[in-house]
Amino acid sequence: MDFDVATDDRLTTVDVTDRVAETLPADCVEGVCTVFVRHTTAALVVQENEPRLRGDLESFLSGLVPDEGHAHDELDGNADAHLRATLLGPSATVPIEDGALALGRWQSIFLVECDGPRTRQVSVTVTS
User: Fold this and answer.
1) CA angle 77, 114, 86 (to 5 degrees)
2) Residue 65: pLDDT band with limits 50, 70, 90
């Protein structure tokens, strides 16, 4: 199952937890859910949905990877986005228990946009 996520900023986070949960098959009681973003300048993470922490994540990534000064920028000016997405990774795996995502109390699934604004395709695969 795939769904699209529209982003509105160059570097931002979008909570996709509910969208992922909606894709779970009704007959799946236990299993594994793998969420994958089909882009090299976006990532997925499991983290707390707290606005200040989300801002901290964006600031951390900006501080860790400078916006400019990379060889790939000569091609299309987005090397920073590729490097930030590489640090985080394109997927997240979450267990399914009792027909629901078995996330911890404070955990949510986020798409991390590193080269927006764009529309991103997210793929969800469930194995039961």
Assistant:
1) 90
2) very high
Report, as an integer, the average pLDDT of 92-110. 98
CA-nearest of 50, 47, 65, 49 to 11 is 65
pTM: 0.96
Nearest C-alpha neighbor of 45 from the set 16, 2, 77: 16
The sign one gets for the Cα dihedral 49, 52, 54, 56 is: negative
What backbone phi and psi angles, to 5 degrees, belong to 51?
-55, -40
Three-state DSSP state, 121:
strand
Domain ranges of the chain: 2-127
Q: Which residue has the tokens 């985080």?
A: 88
Q: Determine if residue 77 is left, alpha or beta; phi over 0 gives left, psi from -120 to 50 gives alpha, anything else beta.
A: left
CATH number of the structural domain 2-127: 2.60.120.460
* For the chain, percent of residues with pLDDT exceeding 90: 99
Distance between CA atoms of residues 67 and 51, nearest Å: 23
